[in-house]
Amino acid sequence: MIPIAKPYITEDEARSAYETILSGWISQGRKVEEFEKRFSEYINGGYAVAVSNCTVGLHLMMIVSDIGKGDEVICPSLSYIATANSIKYVGAEPVFAEVEPYSYNIDINHAEKLITKKTKAILIVHQIGMPANIDSFKILCEKYNLKLLEDAACATGSIYNGKRVGSDSELACFSFHPRKIITTGEGGMITTTSKKHYERLKLLRQQGMSTSAIDRAKTGKPLFEEHLEIGYNYRMTDIQASIGLRQLEKLDWIIKQRREIALRYIEELKGIDQIILPTEEEGYISNYQSFCIYINERSLKERNDLLRNLIDLGIEARRGVMTSHTEPPYRNQFKNIKLPISEKLSDRSILIPLYVPMTENEIEQVIKNIKLQFCY
Question: Can you say how many angstroms the Cα of residue 358 is from the centroid of all Cα atoms in its chain?
Fold first, then answer.
């Protein structure tokens, strides 16, 4: 079976984790600090705060943005459910916006129509690695005095108008889940240009404690902590960070390899008139965290039949991005909303294998069997 994805892990990561374990310092410490510093340098941003996963990062992002009960946050429904859940965690309500048909990212015109007196923020998602229109959303949020928040779970290393996603964002969250570009097993990173947010995020991730274990180790003197507010145990471990550091060294190479495979897919499959392939507009450079194929209305092939056929042929494929408003926790609350583009994209698209390294034979098998499905 050719898998849908797999992380690029080598002996470098295993050795780094092994050395960290033997050091005796395995929870949040110097490796986490170093990983935060290197990640911030990589995206050329301000501050970075490592957390145990991207979902908790989104939760903390809501808290430091003072979003709570009675507030509304506009976000796409076409996103992993954690996007909407993070808004619910703080007692606020997600307001689902439509997406653009080819970028899979939130539609700014529809988002503007949803703004009310209760709206506190817009949460954009850089879906499957394709940057959203950050500059236009900044202008929109300034116009209505709203917070602009970024779910960049899939977008590590993606570039928008010459800058890496997160480089000049007030708040952005990244994921290091194994299906993402680089991994720490589980893990996430919050980036921010605000020192105030940075200090509070560090506080919140460790139970609101004023002094960390690494602070005590650095001073060599007795330090007495206070718990300044109700916080959470959202820390990343040094074991995870030691893996992340080695992954970060390979990140540009990994993206280069992924883009070469994606562009090969596009070149080989562009002649099939029954499908629509990813497109990059000028200034948008995707890391191709996933490769999504939309089956258009010309096709006689049903999406689910295509998935079954590919799996029978030894190619793991999955449905496209979910729509959160149709999932059980949200279905009743949002039963009357219509998001036809989001629903169509979710119902008529598939994700195909893309990982590093893929062999030439694996790439050819994927291309050949997709062509065969459409009698091409």
Answer: 22
Going from the C-alpha of 52 to that of each of 162, 187, 342, the distances in angstroms are 29, 4, 30
Angle at 176 between CA 171 and CA 182, to 5 degrees: 115
Strands 93-97 and 72-76: parallel
Model pLDDT for residues 45-81, shown as the tens digit of each residue: 899 999 999 999 999 999 999 999 999 999 999 999 9
- For the stretch 232-286, pLDDT in tens is 999 999 999 999 999 999 999 999 999 999 999 999 999 999 999 999 999 999 9
3-state secondary structure string, 132-166?
CCHHHHHHHHHHHCCEEEEECCCCCCCEECCEECC
From residue 150, how far is each of 61, 106, 251, 271, 341 by CA, in Å?
A: 9, 11, 21, 35, 21
Q: State if pTM tops 0.85.
A: yes
Token readout for 360 is 């030439």
Q: Tell me, what DSSP letter sits at residue 287? A: -
Distance CA 3, CA 365 (A): 12
Q: What contacts 345, CB < 8 A, 6 or more positions away?
A: 78, 99, 101, 104, 294, 320, 321
Cβ-Cβ contacts under 8 Å for 169 (sequence gap 6 or more)? 45, 134, 148, 150, 152, 191, 192, 193
Place of tokens 């550091």: 245
Write out the DSSP string of 313-358. TTB--EE---BGGGSHHHHTTTTT---HHHHHHHHTEEEE---SSP
Distance between CA atoms of 74 and 120, rounded to whole angstroms?
Answer: 8
3-state SS class at 245: helix
Question: Residues 180, 270, 335, 371: which is the catalytic one?
Answer: 180
Convert the pLDDT of each residue in 99-126 to its tens digit.
999 999 999 999 999 999 999 999 999 9
Contact (CB, 8 A) for 165 and 139: no
* Annotation marks residue 120 as catalytic: no
CA angle 51, 56, 57 (to 5 degrees): 60
